[in-house]
Amino acid sequence: IGRVTRVTGPRGVDEKGCPLIAVEVDDGEYDWRVRDLERVTDDASDALALLALAPGFAGDPRTFEGVLETDEPFERRSSECSGVGSRAATMRLTLDEDFESIVFLAHAEVDLTLMVRTPAGEFICADDVDDLDPVITGSAARGVYEIWVGAYDADAAGSTFRFGISEKANVRATDLATMNVSRIGREPEANP
Fold first, then answer.
1. For a Cys-Cys bond, which of 59, 114, 157, 185 suits 70, CB 3.0-4.6 Å?
2. DSSP E strands: which ranges in the chain?
3. Conformation bin of residue 11: beta by default, left when phi > 0, alpha when psi is -120 to 50
4. Are 36 and 1 in contact (CB under 8 A)?
5. Which of 155, 136, 161 is nearest to 81 (CA)?
6. What per-residue confidence (pLDDT) applies to 36?
């Protein structure tokens, strides 16, 4: 049904041997085949950064810096999205209340794309909105959003990017280059 939900328990197998589960979104009313679902966990390891915001948040725009990964084409999640990024979301953002206006934007020296999965499981994508920078603007209902910063070209792997969240309609992606940042991403593995 295209909605993000929680698995509430196993339900055995169907007549063809496919595992069945119950899910929260329909209060366990229906049996769902596992092959019909995409798994999204609540584990911190599932996203490179976690953040919760409410309207009027301090430090607007919130700005983050990370390094591009290009392991997975975005079109695997949504045929409407271009570019490549990490398998794990760049950020899992929890909006504690509805936002009348919110802006997601990214900037780098390479051509970036942006993909957002809404709490309803819908994907919103952007590419080349502010020159080569992606920008997504609109209202947002409370809930959990998964955000991927990606590149148009897989050769951009390892490039540094900046990602911002703002309530200001006039913020530009290039403005992120001069902002104080928080680092996001995986910690480098220690050499044995």
1. 157
2. 7-13, 19-23, 32-33, 50-53, 62-67, 72-73, 84-85, 91-95, 99-108, 112-117, 123-127, 135-140, 143-151, 160-166, 182-183
3. alpha
4. no
5. 136
6. 46
pLDDT tens, residue by residue, 161-188: 999 999 998 999 989 988 888 887 654 4
As given in the structure block, the two tokens for residue 139 are 């209202």
H helices of 106-158, in order, are none
Q: How far apart are the two ends of the chain, measured CA to CA in Å?
A: 46
- Tell me the pTM: 0.72
Among 91, 72, 95, 93, which residue's Cα sits nearest to residue 83? 72
Tokens of 133: 């920078």
Beta carbons of 65 and 159 less than 8 angstroms apart: no
Q: Which of 46, 44, 142, 25 is nearest to 94 (CA)?
A: 142
Model confidence pLDDT, tens digit, residues 47-80: 778 889 999 999 899 999 999 999 899 988 888 8
β-strands 182-183, 62-67: how paired?
parallel
Q: Is 24 helix (H, G, I), strand (E, B) or coil?
A: helix
Rounded Cα distance between 106 and 65, Å, is 10
